[in-house]
């Protein structure tokens, strides 16, 4: 999304109020808890605990899988929409585990901003850094929430320094914590000159807010004990001297992040963060395409599929394509062109995801995420338009880092395995390669845990127990070049060749030496480890 000069176009009010973002964090920093509080404040759920409800209730959410519950990781990304004050928020959930980087990467192509959650005691952790780097590739605006301030945490300056140094981004405090750990009292809202006091007795109560007339207001001393007040005033004075002021454009450019301190579990600081997302967060941005940049104010509807999820509800074998709308005002029943197949699709049952429910979407606007049930026509990267033959740029597919062959432990079920594997490949959960010589499939993934996830899903969703085994290959590269040369190369190297699930040729080997040799001996051919879905 190219243009973050927020005033460059006037948007219809419905688009103008949309904020589409993701939360990035290291596992355990509090993403689920924060999401839950967002939904609570957004009126999308009535009670905390619904998002992480155990058992049956939890299965109503997209991450119904046993595996997710057992491991406490979220394998599937899903979208949630809710209103907050004058804003309409679309929160796209990113899978938290490091094994799922490709899925996460694609998810981040569908949002305009990210909320980075860090644990106040742990600071910037490995997964946060990786996700941050992905956001930076697109210069995405980032809001930071420093969580768990009710526990012993680091000194505020330490946390800010660490973010500035580790992530090379300017940090501007939007709030400043008063006291730490057991002494944590609340925060001073530096942007609105308000004192926010945390209520420890009820975790779902919105913090008490005290209007303060600047830092020399005597009212401060009525609420803050003298020892804490002195330290706090000293720190704020230093912060104002040493740290950058809030600069909206720098934030939109991705070079400065405002930081709020809080405690998601105590509902503390969450509302201020949400206000920040609404007030400062980017409106739906321009989406790049191969024809021209698509501006959200264009009247014609267009969007792209960034995620396909099958069997969201094991009782109904459905497949849902998550579509980011890039422009226009979508209405249920619209006929859109599926650019890849050039076929018209009537979008009869589009869905919006409201907390634990999905609802028919009667309408949606640029910036929204809608789910389109389908039987496999819609794949990741596909564009839907009102007739224009364009493709959205920037949804890459990465060569897998691990390859294994797969077979059904019951040979009678081998035929059905093809169907299951194809579906997972289309969903983007794995890469599927069909060797040109011999039978069977080779499955490629980015992280080892994905084999386990797949095995568990194939058994759970298709009733086929499978076994993954080592293959003779360790690397896969897409092969491109003039057709004649490609065909000739394939003929002479059939033992190394496979096709991916789109039918594109892939060269497989165990040795980097082989790859180097092909590149040297066949200069007209390209071996690539990224295939851009266009
Ligand atoms: P994640 O999605 O990022 O992995 O984190 P999640 O929200 O699941 O939170 C991880 C743990 O941290 C949970 O505890 C959660 O209750 C706790 N937590 C979240 N926010 C805060 C906070 O502001 N303060 C404190 N003290 N703890 C917080 P758990 O014991 O793993 O799970 P549970 O038994 O509470 O469900």
TrEMBL record:
Output the CDD domains linked to this UniProt entry: RF3 (cd04169), RF3_III (cd16259)
**What Pfam families does this protein's entry cite?**
EF-G_D2, GTP_EFTU, RF3_C
Q: Which PROSITE patterns match?
A: G_TR_1, G_TR_2
Q: Does the keyword Protein biosynthesis apply?
A: yes
Q: Which domain of life is it from?
A: Bacteria
List the keywords (alphabetical).
Cytoplasm, GTP-binding, Nucleotide-binding, Protein biosynthesis
* Residues that coordinate or bind GTP: 25-32, 93-97, 147-150
Task: List each copy of the Tr-type G domain by range.
Answer: 16-285
Which compartments does it reside in? Cytoplasm
Q: Does the record bear GTP-binding in its keywords?
A: yes
Matches recorded under SUPFAM superfamilies: EF-G C-terminal domain-like, P-loop containing nucleoside triphosphate hydrolases, Translation proteins
Matching InterPro entries, A to Z?
A: EF-G-like_DII (IPR053905), EFG_III/V (IPR035647), G_TR_CS (IPR031157), P-loop_NTPase (IPR027417), PrfC (IPR004548), RF3_C (IPR032090), RF3_dom_3_sf (IPR038467), RF3_GTP-bd (IPR041732)
Q: Which residues cross the membrane?
A: none
Family classification: Belongs to the TRAFAC class translation factor GTPase superfamily. Classic translation factor GTPase family. PrfC subfamily.
Primary role: Increases the formation of ribosomal termination complexes and stimulates activities of RF-1 and RF-2. It binds guanine nucleotides and has strong preference for UGA stop codons. It may interact directly with the ribosome. The stimulation of RF-1 and RF-2 is significantly reduced by GTP and GDP, but not by GMP.
Identify this protein by name.
Peptide chain release factor 3
Record organism: Paramylibacter ulvae
The organism's lineage is: Bacteria, Pseudomonadati, Pseudomonadota, Alphaproteobacteria, Rhodobacterales
Q: Give the encoding gene's name.
A: prfC
